[in-house]
Amino acid sequence: MAKQIQAIRGMNDCLPDQTPVWQMVETTLRRVVASYGYSEIRMPVVEMTHLFQRAIGEVTDVVEKEMYTFNDRNGDSLTLRPEGTAGCVRACIEHGLVYNQERRLWYIGPMFRHERPQKGRYRQFHQFGVEVFGLSGPDIDAELIMLTARLWRELGIEQYATLQLNTLGSSEERAAYRDALVTFLEQHKESLDEESQRRMYSNPLRVLDTKNPQVQDILTNAPKLSDYFGEATKAHFDGLKVLLDAADIAYEVNERLVRGLDYYNYTVFEWVTDSLGAQGTICGGGRYDGLVEQLGGQATPAIGFAMGLERLTLMLETLEKVNNLPSAVDVYICMAGEGTLAAGLMLAEKLRSDRPQLRVMTHCGGGNFKKQMKRADKMQASVALILGETEVAEQKVTVKFLRDQGEQQTVNTSELVTLLDKLGE
Ligand code: ATP
Ligand code: MG
Question: Could you list the residue range(s) of the whole structural domain that residue 335 is in?
Answer without folding.
Answer: 331-423
